[in-house]
Amino acid sequence: MSSAETLMDYFVYQRCNYRRKPYLHSHTEYEIFYFHGGSCEYYVEGESMELSPGDLIIVNGLSRHGSLMKEACSRTMVRFDGAYVRPLLQQEDAIDWLKPFRDSNYCRWSLSESQRADAEDILLRMSRFHGKPGLVPFHRLRTAFQDLLLFIYDCWAEGPGRLVDATDLKAQRVHQLIQYIETNYMNELTLDRIADHLYINKFYLVKLFKEATGLTIFEYVNKCRINKAKLLFLMDGNRSVTDVCYEVGFHQPAHFSRNFKQMVGVTPEHFRRLFQ
């Protein structure tokens, strides 16, 4: 088990394949799609677009999206959880790297030759360190990933490219719910409390979140807590499992350990020892 695969929800692919029809899907993570070459059609929010080499697309994840490979193609895709980035945004003079993802359902840029060289260099560095064991490759992967977010922010600041604003009310509701959970995951969360905060009927909220993400609200709460626990163990391998259990919102260490192993594949104690 590598530190990169264990600790980060980064999924970096660079491969060729064919598809008879697009695989349309949605999820709670943000997604970055870079097209290297071949013949590919990309679908998002009911719109289709023929891609050219050097096209870069970001998607907020909740927008239904997918790609159709018409022939042998090469592309890199990165999917990540915004919760990993938000702690870095609290630092002094931090740039809000997630703003381009929050402010649009999706955005597409056709990169210039110099921009393509820059983007492909970053993706190559990520590919080199993804999946390698040890903390040094993990931190080098994370540094390269932060560079990718800065590159995207720079593109967005210069001009939003082909931008579709996030005006869909349902998507906004789901984003509000996700942000509320990621801010309050350590507290006692009930459906009534969440619905009251968002001023929305709780039964409608449950249905809306499930349709948009494929998860129940409390499956997402559990996922958020486990991801935070992984980060706490990374930051300090000497933290006790019990302390981390209570810090991320679980009330019983046995329940925490069972959920952690189910999601991560190892017990929290084993995971902690990996980075002690």
Topology:
Elements: H1 3-7, E1 13-15, E2 30-37, E3 40-44, E4 47-50, E5 55-59, E6 65-69, E7 74-80, H2 86-89, H3 99-102, E8 104-110, H4 113-129, H5 135-158, E9 162-165, H6 169-184, H7 191-198, H8 202-213, H9 217-235, H10 241-247, H11 253-264, H12 268-274
Can you describe this structure in just a few lines?
The chain is an alpha+beta fold. It has helices at 3-7, 86-89, 99-102, 113-129, 135-158, 169-184, 191-198, 202-213, 217-235, 241-247, 253-264, 268-274; strands spanning 13-15, 30-37, 40-44, 47-50, 55-59, 65-69, 74-80, 104-110, 162-165. The relative contact order is 0.13.
Describe this structure in words.
With 276 residues, the chain is an alpha+beta fold. It folds into two domains: 3-165, Jelly Rolls; 169-274, Arc Repressor Mutant, subunit A, CATH 1.10.10. It contains twelve helices and nine strands. The protein has helices spanning 3-7, 86-89, 99-102, 113-129, 135-158, 169-184, 191-198, 202-213, 217-235, 241-247, 253-264, 268-274; strands at residues 13-15, 30-37, 40-44, 47-50, 55-59, 65-69, 74-80, 104-110, 162-165. The strands form two sheets. The chain has a six-stranded antiparallel β-sheet. Strand 3 (40-44) and strand 4 (47-50) form a beta hairpin. Helix 4 packs antiparallel against helix 5 and helix 6 packs across helix 8 (202-213). The longest helix has 24 residues, at 135-158. It is globular. The relative contact order is 0.13. Residues 1-8 and 162-167 have low confidence and may be disordered. Residues 175-274 form the HTH araC/xylS-type domain. One of its GO terms (molecular function) is sequence-specific DNA binding. This is Helix-turn-helix transcriptional regulator.
